[in-house]
Amino acid sequence: MGGNNLTSEQQAIADHAGGHAKIIAVAGSGKTTALLHYIKNRLDAGIAPERLLVLMYNRSAREDFDRRLRQLAEGSTPAVHTFHSVGYRLYQRMIANDHIAAANLSPLPQSTIQLQIWKAIEECAPTHELEEIRARKQSEIEAAEFFIDYTKTILSGDLSAFQELKLGDEYMYFLQVFRTFEAWRRSQNAVTYADLIYDPAMLLSMDEEMAEQYGSYYEDILVDEYQDINEIQHFLLRVLYGKTGNVIAIGDPDQTIYEWRGSKPDFLLTFFDGDFPPRIFIT
């Protein structure tokens, strides 16, 4: 495996050949290069590309990693996804299997979302506060939209989200706004971007037997920037893993930047180890 110009730490990651792994990698440590070579080695060992799931945090990272992987590996390479694209594919499969109601999986435009949120606010807000709320209409819409999106990063529901966000009593009516918006959305068979993960995950969290039908396919699941995933994404990963294969997490707990939308470094530092007891690499 000479000629790769990998450091000893990178080579150890590239040569990892079985079991879960957690890679704590600071910026500039070359973890992407190590991950690319790990995938190439798995392909060279005969693993079919479709049995490898590679998850990047956003579309830009996905496109860059996919380009670099195609340059490094010969022949077919695994598809590189984001959590939302995997959620989309899972949603499609669940519709086909009659496990979830059919929906238009093109996410609603934000203008439609905000219009419906405002309608819900006017319906649910305390009557004696409506005049003041109307005076700050846009900021109230954005606050309610944030609450709805945050609620869809956890499994425990809107009240837990309210408590986690430490919102004041004046926003208690957001609980009913969430429920009103969700009732409207489902009546329209529509989804927001967050629902591509939220809808399948919530249903599968309540039906373990059904969840088992969607796991245990992949030989390896590789997740970059694990410090930035949230509870519902971590749950989705557990579903996809099932009971077989390896899960490889890469992240830096000091670089969490999406805590405002439910990300917690605890999923990398603690929960990953409980669900996928790993070999740990530090670069």
Task: Describe this entry's structure for a reader.
By secondary structure, the protein is an alpha/beta fold. The protein folds into 2 domains: 8-84 and 216-282, Rossmann fold (3-Layer(aba) Sandwich); 110-190. Helix content is 51%, strand content 9%. The protein contains 13 helices and 6 strands. The chain has helices at 8-14, 31-44, 59-72, 83-96, 110-124, 130-135, 137-151, 158-165, 174-187, 195-205, 208-212, 231-241, 266-275; strands at 21-24, 52-56, 80-82, 220-223, 246-251, 279-282. The chain has a 6-stranded parallel β-sheet, sandwiched between helices. Helix 2 packs across helix 3 and helix 5 (110-124) crosses helix 7. The longest helix is centred in the middle third of the chain and has 15 residues, at 110-124. The chain is elongated, with a radius of gyration of 21 Å. The mean pLDDT is 94.
Q: Which structural class do you get from the secondary structure elements?
A: alpha/beta
What order do the strands of the largest sheet run in, or round the barrel if closed?
A: 3-2-4-5-1-6
CATH architecture of the largest domain: 3-Layer(aba) Sandwich
Largest sheet, in brief, is: 6 strands, parallel
Question: How many DSSP H or I helices?
Answer: 13
CATH topology of the largest domain: Rossmann fold
Rg calc = 21 Å
Oligomer: single chain
Low-confidence stretches: none
Structurally, how many domains make up the residues?
2
Q: CATH H level of the largest domain: which superfamily?
A: P-loop containing nucleotide triphosphate hydrolases
Report the end-to-end length measured between terminal Cα atoms: 20 Å
Mean pLDDT: 94
- Taken from the alpha-carbon principal axes, the silhouette is elongated
Order of helices and strands: HEHEHEHHHHHHHHEHEHE
In terms of DSSP E residues, the strand content is: 5-15%
Classify the helix fraction into a percent range. 40-55%
Tell me the number of strands: 6
CATH class of the largest domain: Alpha Beta
